[in-house]
Write a structure and sequence with these properties.
The complex is a heterodimer. Chain A is an alpha+beta fold. Chain A has two domains: 4-77, Beta-grasp domain (Ubiquitin-like (UB roll), Roll), CATH 3.10.20.30; 80-159, DNA polymerase, domain 1 (Orthogonal Bundle), CATH 1.10.150. In chain A, 32% of the residues lie in helices and 17% in strands. Chain A has a five-stranded mixed sheet with strand order 2-1-5-3-4, with helices on one face. In chain A, a hairpin with a 2-residue loop joins strand 3 and strand 4. In chain B, the strands form eight sheets. A seven-stranded mixed sheet of chain B has the order 4-8-2-15-12-13-14, sandwiched between helices. The two termini of chain B are 43 Å apart. Classes of the chains: A alpha+beta, B alpha+beta. At the A-B interface, helix 2, helix 3, helix 4 and helix 5 of A face helix 1 and helix 17 of B.
């Protein structure tokens, strides 16, 4: 049977101790802990709906074994900010109408944030295309997503860096 | 990017304060912050996990199924097969609201004897964990005897073909006989004849089918599910064998539908398992399950024969179309009807002859998909117009202009179009918005294409569609809307809130909408057929107007002015000519409450009710109204590799009135992407009924790498039958896109590819043929 061990995870700034089997994905762990904002769209790394930040990199949590995360910081879309204190990406997605059904939105915001953290603060359309290429959206045609990311990047630049 | 062009204002002195504003949708904060709970984001104590066993064969007889080993596996709570269901059927018809007799289209809930398509469900398992449920599926033993199958609708029509449905595999037929086609062709200077083919398409909503069911203390089966249609509760109750009032569907915000969650998906399985185990049961499809678990877009073969005068006037049009219905009927008859109505597009055709049939095969069943037959019709009629333009030597836009319907003209089914037909305005603006033409660059050839369409909004008028909504105002002046309508991502709920906000003088954020619960919200019908805004929007408008009227009457007394002199805005009520004479809305509400003035209203809105069309002539009313518009695109074709890149893509649509222009633009941009996939990259390939693409790495929907920045042009004729003159945009946004791209590719390389998708391989082959 699968080996299980107690591991410590740092998720959205909160510490969790959890018994995790060796073959459990970060997607399963996160949803098991109640982080339902991490969406499961394909479980194969094709769609990006499950993307989270591990430190500053966007990863498909469905392809990441939880044991491999070790002491890194895991951040979901809800960990980037709150309704009262939103991240510029949250605000821009809301104001620019970039979410339709919204199921891919958490992953898109995470992918965009990873791009911004990797110092692409003045992204061209091609930068955004590349950064978001692992995140499928079936509703928006990506146009308002590009608008939103461009707007958020401007705010981040003006504020002197991502949060 | 988007722009809005307002037409003549219908209704004097209508000044909107909320409607028409590009406000953030009320569902946007929850979705952007990850707080929205979809149907799959709920768990219950003691919950079981379900899995579905599917047939690996497309045409077979189920000789034996033995689940004893699966039942013995520790952690398995329940296994159901045909033994337990004793032939119970699942309906595959559309959800009705009026008790109209259904088509004879039922499918065994689980395979009883015959397997008619690959993936047909044979057994259900509920277990303590997903892993145990998966293991249990592996322990189920079954013998399937392969039967001769038929995988092409034309083969299925041949004498002696294996019979999948009915007596001859024909599951639906429609025809149109209008005018005198023979005389029309005799009068033609030029006759164009071509055959166009379309492919199976997957909805590819990002949220796979999912639900959670439990039986409560009143023996009510509650099902929280991702669906476009909560009113399937009736079908589900019938299928399970309980009264209609003992099934409750709680919809959540839906993670994409596009027609793929219009039929029942997981609900009946969940109801059966929850009832059998008396425990909560969750069933969440994997992506692979989803490829097998819902109906696809119909492939069509359309042969068009069109007569023109030398001046480009259509003299006659004959269309023959065959659709692949797959293994079961589902919504094929309705899809076929839509294709029939839309066969000649937005053109005036006095002499029209259409023969249409949907044919059962052992392919995956086909059903609703955004565009619903009209999209396939458009792919054919718009390529046909370009082919005609080429032969006639007339500019492609000009040829269309000479034939566009005008208000009052008779459409294919012989009824006059009553609303505005702004096809020309839309086409011209979309074309102009392409701007300067990108020059060819060596092997990179540039092409441009346009396509116009006619797409209905609202359900078929002989379904006698109705929609209910309740609007009330709370003691603090906030507004509540209750309506069963489901929100599948287009902003259906937010549009309702915007209408209520407009009429009750509050801000959008002051409105709460409770929706999508078959037990507690007034039944609003389906979120399908581009009907939600038209139907439920009108219901909300009427309900809000009734509440407004009562509040304003009481306010007029308070201000001692004549009724009609009072208005409301920004949470205040005031004398229109003397806005300084005002009171807070909540104070007026308090007065009304203390006097027992009714502060809420429940309204049923009814679409036009008609009988069915004449089956021999296809003449009669089919839809409440139609949307018109156009798509213009510019593509680059690499003549070396055959790769097609969309450089520019503009959708211009007369939406009547945009309740929320951002939401409308979102529909147009999203439709542009979906249509682009339809034209260039998407295809579900079935080889002898076996699906060869079961993931997003094989089934290629457009990614951020593939799309240009789409442009949406919103025209507002204020002539529709929706609230404030709105028309519908959900389906229309998609319909003209694929043919516009096909026309652009033909423009670029000088040869047409008649079957979608236009893959690099087909382009290279076509160029080689041209070279030879």
């Amino acid at each position: 049977m699968n080996k299980t061990k107690q591991i410590t995870l740092l998720i959205n700034g909160r510490t969790h101790r959890a018994a995790v089997p060796a073959n459990e994905t970060l997607l399963e762990t996160l949803r098991g802990l109640g982080y339902f904002e991490v969406k499961s769209g394909c479980e194969k790394g094709d769609c990006g709906a499950c993307a989270v930040l591990v430190d500053d990199e966007a990863v498909d949590s469905c392809l990441t074994l939880t044991w491999t995360v070790k002491t890194q910081r895991v951040t979901t879309v809800s960990g980037l900010g709150t309704i009262e204190d939103p991240h510029p990406l949250h605000t821009a997605f809301i104001e620019r109408g970039a979410a339709q059904c919204g199921f891919c939105t958490p992953g898109l915001i995470i992918a965009a944030e990873s791009m911004l953290r990797n110092d692409t603060r003045d992204p061209s359309l091609d930068d955004m295309r590349l950064a978001l290429s692992g995140n499928l959206c079936r509703c928006t045609g990506y146009t308002k997503v590009f608008d939103a990311v461009t707007a958020a990047a401007r705010v981040v630049r003006e504020e002197g860096g991502p949060k | 990017m988007s722009e809005t062009i307002a037409g003549s204002r219908r209704g004097a002195n209508v000044e909107f304060r909320q409607v028409g504003m590009a406000l953030p949708r009320i569902d946007a904060p929850g979705k952007s912050h990850g707080k929205t709970r979809y149907a799959g984001d709920h768990v219950m104590p003691n919950m079981l996990h379900a899995k579905v066993l599917r047939s690996p064969l497309a045409s077979a007889r189920l000789r034996r199924i033995d689940v004893s080993k699966a039942r013995e596996l520790p952690g398995v709570a329940c296994v159901l097969t045909r033994e337990e269901l004793s032939g119970r059927l699942a309906p595959t018809d559309i959800a009705g609201q009026t008790g109209r007799k259904r088509l004879a289209t039922d499918q065994p809930i689980l395979v009883n004897d015959r397997v008619r398509y690959q993936g047909e469900p044979m057994a259900l398992v509920a277990a303590e964990t997903v892993v145990i449920a998966e293991r249990a599926l592996e322990l189920i033993e079954f013998d399937l005897e392969p039967l001769p199958g038929v995988y092409d609708p034309f083969d299925a029509l041949k004498p002696g073909a294996p019979i999948v449905q009915g007596t001859d595999n024909v599951v639906a037929k429609y025809k149109v006989r209008k005018g005198d086609t023979e005389a029309g062709f005799a009068a033609a200077d030029v006759i164009i004849e071509n055959t166009y083919c379309t492919q199976f398409i997957e909805h590819a909503f990002l949220e796979p089918e999912v639900g959670l069911a439990w039986v409560d203390e009143n023996e009510v089966i509650n099902i929280r599910v991702s669906t476009q249609v909560i009113e399937h509760f009736r079908f589900i109750a019938d299928a399970v064998g309980v009264p209609h009032n003992k099934v409750r569907i709680l919809g959540s915000l839906v993670g994409g539908g596009f027609g793929g969650k219009e039929d029942v998906t997981v609900e009946i399985y969940l109801a059966l398992l929850a009832k059998a185990t008396n425990r909560p049961v969750r069933l969440c499809y994997t992506r692979e399950d989803s490829f097998f678990g819902h109906g696809k877009r119909h492939p069509f073969t359309l042969t068009h024969r069109t007569g023109f005068t030398r001046q480009g006037k259509i003299t006659a049009w004959k269309v023959d179309m065959t659709a692949d219905a797959g293994g079961y009927v589902f919504l094929s008859p309705y899809v076929l009807l839509y294709a029939t109505v839309a066969a000649p597009g937005p053109y005036r055709v006095d002499n029209l002859h259409v023969d249409a049939r949907a044919v059962a095969t052992n392919n995956m069943f086909t059903s609703a998909f955004r565009g619903f037959g009209a999209a396939q019709a458009c792919i054919a009629h718009e390529q046909q117009m370009d082919e005609a333009a080429k032969t006639l030597g007339i500019d492609r836009l000009e040829l269309r202009r000479r034939n566009f319907l005008r208000t009052g003209d008779l459409i294919a089914t012989g009824v006059p179009i009553e609303s505005a037909v702004w096809s020309d305005e839309c086409m011209t603006r979309a074309w102009e918005a392409l701007g300067e033409r990108t020059p060819d660059d060596g092997p990179i050839k540039i092409g441009r294409g346009v396509a116009a369409y006619q797409q209905s909004y609202g359900r078929i008028t002989w379904l006698h569609d109705t929609s209910e909504a309740w609007v009330g105002i709370e003691m603090d002046g906030t507004v509540v809307v209750r309506s069963g309508v489901t929100d599948i991502g287009a902003g259906q709920v937010s549009a309702l809130a915007q209408i209520a906000a407009e009429l009750l003088g509050v801000h959008l954020t002051d409105v709460a909408v409770y929706n999508s619960d078959s037990s507690t919200t007034p039944l609003a019908g389906t979120t399908t057929a581009t009907r939600a805004l038209y139907m439920t929007g009108n219901a909300v408008r009427l309900a809000a107007e009734a509440v407004r009227e009562r509040l304003l009457r009481r306010a007029a007394q308070e201000f001692e002015v004549a009724h009609g002199k009072v208005d409301m805005a920004d949470n205040r009520v005031f004398v229109a000519d003397h806005p300084e004479r005002s009171m807070a809305l909540k104070d007026l509400v308090a007065v009304c409450a203390s006097e027992g003035v009714h502060r809420s209203e429940l309204v049923m809105f009814r679409a036009p009710f008609t009988g069915e069309i004449d089956p021999e002539t296809g003449q009669g009313r089919v839809h409440p109204d139609y949307t018109y518009g156009a798509q213009a695109v510019e593509v680059a074709v690499d003549t070396g590799t055959g790769e097609v890149t969309v450089l520019k893509s503009v959708g211009a649509h007369d939406v009547g009135l945009a309740i929320n222009p951002d939401a409308v633009a979102g529909q147009i941009e999203g439709g542009a992407a979906q249509g682009q996939g339809y034209a260039l990259s998407e295809e579900l390939r079935y080889e002898q009924g076996q699906l060869t693409s079961t993931s997003f790495s094989e089934y290629l929907i457009p990614t951020a790498m593939d799309v240009p920045e789409y442009k949406a042009i919103i025209l507002e004729s204020r002539s529709g039958v929706g609230p404030f003159g709105a028309k519908g945009i959900g389906e229309p946004a998609l319909t003209p896109v694929a043919p516009a791209i096909a026309n652009a590719v033909a423009d670029a390389i000088g040869v047409r590819i008649f079957d979608l998708p236009i893959t690099p391989e087909k382009v290279v082959n076509a160029l080689q043929r041209l070279g030879n």
